[in-house]
Write a structure and sequence with these properties.
- There is one protein chain.
- With about 725 residues, this protein is an all-alpha fold.
- It has 25 helices and no strands.
Length: about 725
């Protein structure tokens, strides 16, 4: 029916539009009549209306044409006006049929109306019932709120009573003295665990009673007497126990560290005394300080005395300086007569004392060393003495902090009360020894031992020895600098003419310097010190001046250069064994050695090949100035040089090589000098060839007698010594 209605409406619209168009065509001039316009109210379809929009009409027409029914009607060629009337007729029939259906169903509609009315009545009764329920619920919710308020008030009262009960329980528990506590304090030995447990309980109760008394609690008076009697008994037993332990330290041949370690198990005893009987705690602390102070002083005084008996018998004296002549103390640098003897200017194995393995090695046992007839340098004794001091001081400081419950300045004061006399005695002994010590290497090793021990103490978190280390360094550094300055002055004041017979071999004073300087440089590399390098720099300057003064004693320049090269080479070789290759000393002597070696090579080549060298230099100078024509007057000289070189160069090179090997003690250095001389000779002869290739000398007949440069190189390689 909906499709039919849509189709009918579309048909009517098309018919209406078609009729309108026909009327316009037929009536023509009548279309503009006012009466006809008023009778036909076309609305939006009026083409004379100002609101008519042609585009919208096209849209409506297009939409109607796309309708399926309209398409079907247009396709079959039906007359739309007849078809529209037919549709209207069908609609009327359908409408009449629908009216008859409504009339037939009127009874059912009336019945439905009655049922709806009955339902309304039922719903009205339900509404009344729900209203009654709502009023009842309102009264119930008010009662629930009342119960909630009552419950909250009861909970608050319960919490308050529980809080009061807890406070009262704590108070009662803190005031009540159980029988187990009384029995343990009065009867149990202090070494039993239950005594320590009940002592802690007693301390807690005493603290609680003091706190409650401060608050004015009257019940404290009931237990004060009992607690005081128990406290006095506990103090008496603890005092007797700790004093017995301290007195046991005094027994001869007793290892005090064992009872000291045992006391740490009962460190709470002293805490109890500190909180309940300070006078007794002070008495115990004073007794401990007095006892341990005497023990440490006696032990270290005895150990130090026995330790110094195993020192080398022959030590450096004030005359054992670097610039002192060998003749002043015969045999001092000769092979020692003792099985082991300390050296003054050489390090040897002495540097191992600051190695990590030796630094913390077990201390020396003097009677064992005496039994084995062993002797040690001072730095080894110093290391043993101070390692024992370091180890015991660290242990003592940690014990004091833990047992006597102190830290910071208080711990420092208590530590120095125990160890102060021992440290002062050690400083006085060191000061006394250094007053007659002239062994700079020993003193410098002691300085580095102290620096390393100071780092170890810092790692162990024991700052109590910091002041002592500073005092030791304040003694060692000035003495070390004084000894170095004495050696510098001895070298500066040395008169080469008083040294006796001289030769070109390395001098014993420069050897002393090389050994001494390499020793200090190798030690100083581990923990660098700028002051040490400055003093070594002063010593190096004086040694260089000394070498030049001694070299000036030789008559010929060649001997002077041989002496200088031998000494520089020796000092450089010793320094490179221990010092770094880029150290200032190594670089300085390397430059001096290179300069003197080059000068010696020129001096060495001068006798046999001096004329050749001089001519090459003169000819090159003339060529460079553009005066090569002057070479034409040198033909006779050139001929003599060519023939002289060809006849004598082999014997001259052989003599040169033998002379070098006899002059230098270091074969490697001699080989290097020979190689440098031969290389320079080849270069000079090659330059001589280039001079003779100039046009002015190119026609010289003697050029045919020139030795081929490659042949000369092959022959000279045969004279190169191999070691």
């Amino acid at each position: 029916m909906a499709a039919a209605a849509t189709m009918a409406a579309a048909a009517r619209e098309l018919v209406l539009r078609a009729g309108t168009s026909d009327m316009e065509e037929e009536e023509g001039p009548l279309a503009g009549g006012a009466g006809l316009q008023e009778s036909l109210q076309l609305g939006e379809l009026a083409i004379t209306s100002d609101e008519f929009i042609l585009d919208e009409v096209d849209v409506h027409i297009q939409a109607n044409l796309e309708d399926e029914l309209v398409k079907e009607a247009l396709k079959t060629g039906v007359d739309l006006r007849h078809y529209s009337k037919q549709v209207e007729l069908e609609l009327q029939q359908i409408e009449q049929k629908s009216i008859r259906d409504y009339i037939q169903e009127s009874e059912n509609i009336a019945s439905l109306h009655n049922q709806i009315t009955a339902c309304d009545a039922v719903l009205e009764r339900m509404e009344q019932m729900l209203g009654a329920f709502q009023s009842d619920l309102s009264s119930i919710s008010s009662e629930i709120r009342t119960l909630q308020e009552q419950s909250g008030a009861m909970n608050i009262r319960l919490r308050n009573r529980q809080a009061v009960r807890g406070k009262l329980g704590e108070l009662v528990d803190g005031l009540v003295v159980p029988s187990a506590l009384v029995t343990a304090i009065l009867e149990a030995p202090v070494t039993e665990p239950r005594f320590l447990e009940q002592l802690q309980e007693l301390d807690a109760k005493a603290a609680a009673v003091r706190e409650q008394e401060a608050r004015g609690t009257a019940a404290c008076a009931d237990v004060r007497g009992v607690l005081d009697r128990l406290r006095v008994k506990a103090v008496m037993k603890i005092r007797e126990f700790i004093l017995q332990k301290i007195y046991s330290f005094r027994k001869p041949m007793t290892n005090y560290q064992i009872p000291q370690t045992a006391l740490l198990k009962y460190r709470f005893f002293y805490q109890f005394l500190l909180g309940n009987e300070r006078a007794t705690a002070k008495e115990i602390r004073d007794e401990y300080v007095e006892t341990l102070s005497k023990i440490y002083l006696s032990y270290y005084r005895s150990y130090l005395g026995r330790l110094m008996k195993v020192q080398y018998e022959e030590v450096a004296e004030k005359d054992d300086l670097m610039g002192v002549e060998d003749t002043a103390k015969k045999g001092f640098f000769s092979k020692p007569s003792l099985r082991s003897r300390n050296t003054i200017f050489t390090l040897g194995t002495r540097g191992s004392v600051i190695s990590p393995t030796e630094l913390e090695a077990p201390i020396l046992v003097p009677h064992t060393a005496q039994r084995g007839e062993q002797r040690y340098p001072f730095e080894a004794l110093f290391r043993s003495q101070h390692y024992a001091l370091l180890d015991n001081s660290c242990r003592e400081y940690l014990f004091i902090c833990e047992f006597f419950v102190v830290s910071g300045p208080a711990a420092h004061d208590l530590f120095h009360a125990v160890m102060g006399r021992t440290l002062s005695m050690t400083l006085k002994h060191l000061e006394s020894y250094l007053a007659d010590c002239y062994d700079a290497i020993a003193v410098f090793l002691c300085i580095h031992i102290v620096l390393r021990f100071r780092n170890i103490a810092a790692k162990r978190d024991v700052p109590a020895l910091d002041r002592y280390w500073e005092q030791v360094l304040a003694l060692l550094w000035p003495r070390f600098e004084l000894i170095l300055e004495m050696n510098v002055q001895s070298v500066r004041s040395t008169d080469p003419q008083r040294l006796g017979g001289l030769d070109t071999r390395p001098h014993y004073i420069t050897r002393r310097y090389a050994e001494f300087s390499s020793a200090l440089v190798s030690i100083n590399q581990t923990i660098p010190n700028e002051r040490t390098m400055q003093l070594l720099g002063q010593l190096q300057v004086e040694v260089e001046n000394f070498v030049l003064r001694v070299a000036a004693e030789f008559s010929s320049r060649k001997e002077q250069l041989v002496f200088l090269i031998n000494n520089y080479d020796m000092m450089l070789g010793v320094l490179m064994e221990r010092a770094a290759d880029d150290s200032k000393e190594v670089e300085s002597f390397q430059q001096l050695l290179n300069a003197r070696t080059q000068e010696f090579i020129e001096e060495l080549l001068s006798p046999p090949f001096g004329g050749l060298v001089a001519f090459v230099k003169e000819a090159e100078a003339l060529i460079e100035r553009g005066q090569a024509e002057r070479l034409r007057g040198e033909e006779a000289r050139v001929t003599q040089l060519i023939r002289g070189f060809g006849s004598s160069w082999k014997s001259s090179v052989e003599s040169l090589s033998q002379d070098v090997m006899r002059s230098f003690t270091n074969f490697r250095n001699g080989t290097s000098i020979i190689q440098g001389a031969l290389t320079q000779l080849i270069q000079v002869y090659h330059r001589f060839h280039r001079v003779l290739s100039q046009p002015q000398l190119r026609a010289l007949p003697a050029r045919a007698e020139l030795i081929n440069i490659h042949h000369l190189m092959v022959e000279l390689k045969k004279h190169k010594p191999n070691f």
